[in-house]
């Protein structure tokens, strides 16, 4: 499928902000993410915890002890992807996660090296580092990605850690510059979702796999991933569940988007944000910042 360029309704520097999760066990999930990623807890109270890296909020955990676990086929979160600044940072994190005893999957995507696991409530997690942009390959507006074996030994060695013994590993704290690099969603139709996100938010489809699509602003490999691997033909859920509650996008200028969406009844406007819901019930807020 050939994808025409989309209207520039958001600046190229628009990116993913914090992800909000409904947590059945708020204290347990808070401990898990602080231990796994070395995040700091801001404004803890019995109903929520905001987890940050050097003051940048990355996760908002909301207490929802009475909600059911989401079914695997339910549209929602596939994974939250935490982007570390360097390959050495990724190596330090990998040694830390291995010492914690986590079972970890991996994928060399050509544009990045990534590791995968799930939290105790089944929310997917990716921790990754990008390769330099000048090494990415583009053909006809599509970035070339793959899922190859990661050179885990090389990632550890980049951090000065012995792959055989993990000598040199230290307790991990999220470095300055850690962000949510992208969010990957489960939807009922990847093609229909790509059409909605490009038409609504002006993203470009930079990789189209049929059952999955990857979209971005400004030539990134992807800010939003969409797949139907477990959720094909599923409609928006009609009742709440644990898992994804909402996610945030940050943009320096909302006025082009306001003009683009003016008159749409599904958009809520406030002075510094716009809130809307995609066709599969995923709530998002675009915030000026």
Automatic annotation (TrEMBL):
UniProt-listed SUPFAM superfamilies: Glyoxalase/Bleomycin resistance protein/Dihydroxybiphenyl dioxygenase (SSF54593)
Family annotation (PROSITE patterns): VOC
Listed Gene3D superfamilies: 2,3-Dihydroxybiphenyl 1,2-Dioxygenase, domain 1
Protein name: Glyoxalase
Alphabetical list of Pfam families matching this protein: Glyoxalase
Listed InterPro entries: Glyas_Bleomycin-R_OHBP_Dase (IPR029068), Glyas_Fos-R_dOase_dom (IPR004360), VOC_core (IPR037523)
Segments forming domain VOC: 15-130, 179-289
Residues covered by region (Disordered): 263-289
